[in-house]
């Protein structure tokens, strides 16, 4: 990874940390992941099978594989 990419990743990490800090101040639980596959792993860990779940439209969720997970039959996807 070149210097430009490293700086871009550093900036995104700092922004994510600041957003997480502000959400935690408002009593939200926050997890930061670096890659889409980590999102799916975290959701499997957090959401019990059989739970009812719904999402608004999101290309990011589709790209990360989250919609595939939610439609897999493990959850009641509304």
The neighbouring-strand order within the major sheet is: 1-2
What is the number of domains?
A: 2
- The proportion of strand residues reads 5-15%
Main β sheet profile: 2 strands, parallel
Radius of gyration (CA) equals 15 Å
Mean pLDDT: 95
**Strand segment tally:** 2
Order of helices and strands: HHEHHE
Class based on secondary structure composition and strand pairing: mainly alpha
Approximate helicity band: 55-70%
Per DSSP, the total helix count is 4
In whole angstroms, the N-to-C terminal distance is 40 Å
Summary tags:
mainly alpha, globular, 78 residues, single chain, two-stranded parallel ribbon, 2 domains, 5% strand
How would you explain this protein's 3D organization?
- This protein has 78 residues and is mainly alpha-helical.
- The protein has two domains: 1-30; 33-78, no CATH class.
- The chain contains four helices and two strands; from the N terminus they run ααβααβ.
- Strands 1-2 form a two-stranded parallel sheet.
- The longest helix has 23 residues, at 3-25.
- The mean pLDDT is 95.
């Amino acid at each position: 990874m070149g210097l430009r990419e490293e700086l871009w990743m550093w900036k995104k990490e700092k922004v994510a940390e600041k957003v997480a800090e502000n959400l935690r101040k408002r009593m939200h639980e926050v997890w930061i992941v670096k890659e889409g596959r980590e999102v799916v792993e975290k959701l499997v860990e957090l959401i019990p099978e059989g739970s009812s779940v719904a999402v608004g439209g999101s290309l990011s969720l589709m790209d990360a594989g989250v919609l595939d997970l939610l439609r897999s039959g493990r959850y009641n996807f509304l």
